[in-house]
Amino acid sequence: MSEKRIFADDKIQETMLGPLWARAKYSKQYPEFLDDPMAREIITKLNYDFSEIQNYLGEWRGLGLLARAKNFDIAFKRFLEDNPESTLVNIGAGLDTTFSRVDNGRIQCFNLELPEAAKFRKSLIPDTERNKTIAKSAFDEWYNEIEYEASKGIFFIAGGFVYYFFEESVKNLFISMAQHFPGGELIFDATSNLANRVVNRRAKKAGEKDLRFHFGVGNPEKIFPNWSPKIKIKEWYTIWSRLEINSEWYEKTIKAIKKSERVKAAKIIHLKFLE
Questions:
Q1: Is the pTM of this model over 0.90?
Q2: I need a labelling partner for 188 at 20 to 30 A (CA). Which of 1, 59, 173, 235 fits?
Q3: Which of 58, 27, 29 is nearest to 248 (CA)?
């Protein structure tokens, strides 16, 4: 057995490891909901104590990360029906394994991530001819590094991204993307202002000095189309509204999911950039 990898420093963020752990653990338990063998394989290579992440996420939040991934997979696979040779761009990719789940053998994928995080990603998920990492911030000039043909389509995913930044930063990014990639589509998850307050309160109680979440989204129709005439909402829905809840999950988990749905705490938002 090969030696497990040890982190070079202590700065590997929970935002990279949490979703990976959740997909590995719960896709093993519930592969019919989301099957992610690559996540399970990567976890075996890491010399890391996930107990703190496990305690923080629990089943409800862990399954929520699977729900996000499943919603993205469904949307992109639908896009693939008309665009089988399209380009997929994963913004703030972390250790995301979407490409391995949706690859039809014809697409190409670019994973955008900060330099140090990109280095760590590539050590676990090496670049291939059709799945490459770009070591840049989403707020840098990265647009010209995306190789694609507009006629074949381009689709962006941004999981666990927008709520970590202020609205103005996200607005400027989306406007730039709409200008550079007319005809493209973008799907991402967003949290409500109420959800953000709950998360930030919990983080403060845990000893964090800075706010964890910033940009909250109430009604998407009142926000994104107003940013640019090139940005259109294709659809939006709450994160669990199109997915089946498993009766085998903990009762506490099911109650939390239903409560979250009632107050629209987490949403999936699908935009189209007009030509």
A1: yes
A2: 59
A3: 29
